[in-house]
Amino acid sequence: ISQLPDHLICQILSHLPTKEAVRTSILSTRWRNLWQLVPVLDLNGREFRLFVSFVGRFFDIHKDSCIQKLCLRISDQAGKSYLTSWIDLVTRRRIQHIDISHVFYRPEFGDIPLSLYTCDTLVHLRLSLLTMVNVEFVSLPCLKILHLEFVKYTNETTLDKLISCSPVLEDLTIAKYSEDNANVLQVRSQTLKRVDIHGWFDRHTRLVIDTPLLQFLMIQTHSIKNIDFINLGFTAKVDMDANWLTTLDPNDLSNRSMMRDFFTSISRVKSLVISYATIKVYIAVCSISNLEMLLNLLKSCPKLESLSLKLFNYKKKKKAEVMSSTVPPCLVSSLKFVKLESHELFGCGTELKVARYFLENSTILEKLTLRNDYWEENVNHIRQTLHAIPRCSSTCEVVLL
């Protein structure tokens, strides 16, 4: 490997943390100074005693060259005090990748300087446990990946500008900090393909999704006022763990209407994953059985191709009701894959009833998967029961996990 030219060795070293790259200097005189040519600084303050001085030395070495990546884990007040000057410096060195976070949670987050908002070479930005100050102008023409984890905003317009003024943004992750002063979280982008939003929201927070090219959406959140889908991509895959529904009042007609609008807004998705919490609360709000809720959901998604459903026995003492004979359009024309998952210790009545419904009514179903870690003793009985069910699709495969 020492016979490779310097630029290839530096390319290899750029994939290592800086501490490991420096260690290669002991291999031979050929390697002694190669780490200094690597335009990447990836350093954890907890693992490097002379953190601040080493960062300063790195910038001195690269004072006349470009820096491709800056990845810092700041663990003390000294590092935080230099943060502004470090970011100002790399934004002038054609930086492409910035990843900065605090190692420990601290009430006083470090501030992100204004220079970051107008970096015209930045492609990948990840910030964690930092504060984004108010800014009048944002221009990030090359930014494709944006990850904000427990970041504070001085006002909600800062986040709106960051998303809307990134014209090629494709991947967005927001782990929301409950005290970030953003009561309305707006994700509006004509280019976003992947959105992941999770964390603890204030109960008054409203989430707005306007992403016509979206391909994948994951939302895992608690205590949110409501979610509005204004424009959702036709091919979007939606993964919902919507525990925010537990905050709704089942006797409030406006809440019922909001839920109907919510399911209607995701009617064009091709793949849908929903958790048991969503099912449980929808039952309460609609005052119907879990199986009838599932039927209403399927009716709202006429183009659904894949469904992954987590089930549980919400009212164990209540006998499961018979599902309606009406067959939703997706079972006839689009639904190909169904996965039913349960973590109930006793019984399998609900799972078998739902499985029977799909087998008897899904015209083009290709695969039905059932999973329960407690079925080991009854697996033969369950397999025999499923085998005896008449199938609308002759090519459907049934798998037990």
Automatic annotation (TrEMBL):
CDD domains xrefs: F-box_AtFBL13-like
Domain F-box per the UniProt entry, residue ranges: 1-34
One Pfam entry name: FBD
Gene3D superfamilies: 1.20.1280.50, Ribonuclease Inhibitor
InterPro entries in UniProt: F-box-like_dom_sf (IPR036047), F-box_AtFBL13-like (IPR053781), F-box_dom (IPR001810), FBD (IPR006566), FBL13/AtMIF1-like (IPR050232), LRR_dom_sf (IPR032675), LRR_FXL15/At3g58940/PEG3-like (IPR055411)
Alphabetical list of PROSITE patterns matching this protein: FBOX
SMART domains: FBD, FBOX
Protein name, entry field: F-box domain-containing protein
Taxonomic lineage: Eukaryota, Viridiplantae, Streptophyta, Embryophyta, Tracheophyta
